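User: Please run a holo structure prediction.
Assistant: Happy to. Please share the sequence and the ligand.
User: Here you go; the ligand is FE2/S2 (inorganic) cluster.
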Amino acid sequence: MSARLIMKLRVAEARFITDDTLLLRLVHPSRPQLPAWTAGAHVDLVLPDGKVRQYSLCGDPAERGSYTIAVKREEAGRGGSAWIQESLVEGALAHVSAPRNNFALAETASHHLLVAGGIGVTPILAMARSLAAAGASFRVHYCARSAPTAPLLEELRDICGERLSCWFSEDGRRFTAAAIEAPRDEEHLYACGPLGLIDDLTAHALSLGWSPEQIHAEKFQALRDEDFIPEDFEVELSSTGQRLHVPASSTLLAVLQAHGVPMRTSCETGICGSCICDYSAGDVIHRDAVLQLAERSHRVVPCVSRARGTLTLAL
Ligand code: FES
């Protein structure tokens, strides 16, 4: 793992907000202010084995003294959430990166439509808070199994009032993409939640005439495509003209690093966005969960994505 500022933050508050979701408020042990962030940003939390997990900041971006995240216990996960819930008690130290935002609000939007699925509410809550504070036009759909299992529901209700629609499947109100209508001018759609929800929403929105630039999504799962068979390809660095071969057995990131190209990395699973770089030509096979649709024409995530033929990187 390379070059991303990691801070040791103290757990000032740790409390369960649903049966399986722990809210953590993190502060710097000595500094009154933490690096600034904007709604939609996440931090990396580094586990004792060096692996990292991404968590969206769900507090108030205007409050610089602490970061708030919510960690859901993933029973089928890789153990990171279980370790966090058991170990990050009040007073413990957590290794946390500076915030990064791959899911920012569009400044030019005239109306914002936000969709949260379950724990995907975390960035949506920060967005709703920012939009409400700015007096912006917005609406939120929140989908979950039931009200008691929906994290941060009361906070979202307080911020949104009538602008919030709740969809609780146990109450017979299951959210479907059909709840989304054709876009108004300069309307932007933001969705955070399970892959299936995001894929359905994106496909439906595109079919209704939303442009890729108007659709913003945040997925916390890497792409599952076990049937994918990697193939060799070539890469050219536009600054030097250097050509490198990427064998099927390696990643583009590994090849770049092996040839001394400085790359920021963190998750190495296509989720965090640390290694994103630009390309100017080539047929990219995108396999990440971080780039927005509109970015895919010129940006690539080299820890997971590949190409056909030759890819020219703006490096
Ligand atoms: S290292 Fe996280 S997306 Fe590549």
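The chain has a mean pLDDT of 93.
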